[in-house]
């Protein structure tokens, strides 16, 4: 009889909402830590000392529908461990998120951590290829979904073509043209812009002398960018992906406000606002939101800068563009921003 082999089997349900949108190949990665209390050569640290296991498994390509099975061979020591931890993630980072009921407050996570109570052991219920009838396996069931980065990319590309943005761009252009037009003396065009703002955004009529900045504030405070408005993504991101978002097997987690700030900068650029106007509007939004008179948070401002820079390009924004931009700012890590937060007590 051949020697007994041991398997880790991941059965992943694919196709449930929010559905994966990434079109290129996604590779499933896994790491099995049979002794999580001991740090060894199989682990590295990154960022704020968060646990970032190096990959020990092979790579498999994720499908886009149905239930897909992935099998990784384990050592006998790994299989017989009573307190193992298994990490699953997808590559490229930002392409997929995973969800297991009862884990991580039922959120879709960039890296999923499972422990013995989340999986089942014994027998060979779903035989891997090349397995023998006397082999044994650990089976973990979970689902694959759209990632938070893919979601914000979708929103940026969709909303940049919206009627609201088209109207803002149109009247920003009118305003810029009429500043040097002595004939109109700054009278007719602002009125047209006021009417458009009222009709398009359902907001107050402008009264300030600088209606352009007023218009930006309406975009912030009315039904577009306001807290809870259609372009404030935190109420949408929180219940699905949570407040703290890890991108794949990264050592950094990000507070979920950065995605809306990147989106805000991007849309503002597409709407024809200058960066100075965007920053001024964001500072006032911060004052209304928190009562702070110190202007917008520096990291919020950096995220707006990133979005504005991306908005200056003609091409559609991509997941990789967001990942590349975010990776330039290690200080965005949640435990750098909020070192005393309860989430920073965990290395997972």
Alpha plus pi helix count: 11
| Number of E-type strands | 13
Regions with pLDDT < 50 over 5+ consecutive residues? 181-189, 194-209, 220-228, 287-293
Q: Give the rounded overall mean pLDDT.
A: 79
Structural classification? alpha+beta
The first-to-last residue Cα distance is 41 Å
Helicity level: 25-40%
Percent range for β-strand residues: 15-25%
Give the total of domains. 2
Largest sheet geometry: 5 strands, mixed
Morphology = elongated
Could you state the order of secondary-structure elements as H and E? EEEEEEHEEEEEHHHHHEEHHHHH
Rg to the nearest angstrom?
25 Å
Task: Please sum up the structure shown.
This protein has 348 residues and is α+β, with helices and mostly antiparallel strands.
What does this structure look like?
The protein is an alpha+beta fold and 348 residues long. The chain has 2 domains: 7-146, Immunoglobulin-like (Sandwich), CATH 2.60.40; 151-345, no CATH class. The chain has helices spanning 76-79, 148-159, 163-178, 188-201, 211-221, 234-241, 257-270, 275-290, 298-311, 319-326, 334-337, and strands at 6-14, 27-33, 43-46, 50-53, 60-61, 66-74, 85-91, 97-99, 111-114, 120-121, 136-145, 244-246, 253-255. Strands 1, 6, 8, 10 and 11 form a 5-stranded mixed beta sheet that branches. A hairpin with a 6-residue loop joins β12 and β13. α4 (188-201) runs parallel beside α5. It comes from Methylobacterium radiotolerans (strain ATCC 27329 / DSM 1819 / JCM 2831 / NBRC 15690 / NCIMB 10815 / 0-1).
């Amino acid at each position: 009889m051949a020697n007994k082999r041991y398997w880790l089997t991941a059965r992943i349900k694919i196709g449930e909402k929010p559905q994966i949108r990434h079109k290129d190949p996604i590779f499933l990665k896994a790491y099995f830590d049979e002794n999580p209390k001991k740090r060894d050569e199989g682990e590295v640290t990154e960022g704020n000392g968060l646990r970032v296991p190096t990959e020990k498994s092979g790579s498999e390509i994720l499908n886009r529908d149905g239930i897909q099975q992935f099998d990784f061979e384990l050592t006998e020591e790994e299989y017989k461990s009573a307190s193992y931890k298994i990490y699953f993630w997808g590559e490229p980072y930002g392409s997929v998120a995973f969800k297991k009921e009862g884990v991580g407050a039922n959120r879709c996570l960039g890296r999923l951590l499972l422990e013995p109570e989340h999986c089942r052991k014994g027998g060979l219920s779903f035989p891997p290829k090349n397995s023998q009838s006397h082999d044994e396996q650990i089976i973990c069931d979970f689902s694959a979904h759209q990632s938070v980065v893919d979601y914000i990319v979708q929103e940026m590309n969709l909303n940049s073509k919206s009627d609201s943005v088209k109207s803002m761009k149109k009247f920003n252009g009118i305003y810029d043209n009429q500043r040097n037009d002595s004939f109109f003396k700054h009278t007719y065009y602002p009125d047209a812009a006021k009417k458009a703002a009222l009709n398009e955004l359902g907001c107050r009529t402008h009264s300030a002398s600088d209606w352009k900045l007023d218009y930006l504030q309406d975009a912030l405070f009315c039904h577009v960018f306001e807290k809870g408005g259609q372009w404030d993504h935190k109420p949408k991101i929180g219940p699905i992906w949570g407040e703290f978002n890890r991108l794949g097997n990264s050592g950094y987690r990000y507070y979920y406000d950065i995605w809306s700030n990147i989106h805000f900068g991007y849309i503002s650029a597409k709407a024809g606002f200058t960066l100075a106007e965007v920053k001024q509007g964001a500072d006032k939004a911060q004052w209304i939101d928190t009562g702070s008179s110190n202007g917008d948070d520096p990291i919020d401002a950096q995220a707006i800068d990133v979005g504005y820079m991306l908005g200056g390009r003609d091409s559609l924004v991509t997941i990789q563009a967001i990942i590349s931009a975010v990776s330039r700012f290690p200080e965005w890590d949640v435990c750098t921003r909020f070192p005393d937060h309860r989430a920073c007590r965990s290395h997972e």
